[in-house]
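USER: Note each token:
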Amino acid sequence: MIREFGFGEFLFLLEGARWTVLLSLLAVTFGGALGLAVALGRTSNWAWMRGLMATYIQIFQGTPLLVQLFIVYFGLPLLGLKVDIWMALTVGLSLHTSAFLGEIWRGSIQAVPPGQSEAARALGIGYVHRMIDVVLPQAFRIALPATIGFLVNLIKGTALAALLGLTELTRSGQLMANITFQPLQAYGAVGLVYFFICLPLTTFSARIERRLNAAR
């Protein structure tokens, strides 16, 4: 007997959505920290550091995310490093995230008027405090729309985790489509859940952006 797509099947999708959200949070946390380091390296006074970070960004922006995930998942065991699916996905998505956020934040840091940094240097403020207190707060305002836009794409990009065997939102929808033989209802529900996951993020971004512009 063929099952109908109903409330129980929708709850199964929500169960998968939990892992989608968790995977996105892990990628943003670790990828964001690494991305800040990449951005600072790209704006460094050391030419070798700028070149190294530029190469890093080109590698991860110039190759498909799915290929990066496969390399981490299947490549690390060849080096003697045993990784489970969660570790592989977290590492792969974090590296991908760091490259894109690093480049977004690099442009935002360089968009801050040079006079701001020069004035802070003239007052004897060191590099660390100059970045934390003067440059990065202004760069954050500039980078906010692009950062949120990337994070929304990252949430949708976690759908590739299904190809490695993780039963996240997209994989849950695929299973329900196969069980119920109602792919339109199943994938339509998947799209609806993705929409409501991303909607608070974009709404929050617009609100913060208006508040920052008002304060300015």
Summary: The chain has a mean pLDDT of 90. The two ends are 63 Å apart (CA to CA). Residues 7-215 form a domain with the MetI-like fold fold (CATH 1.10.3720.10).
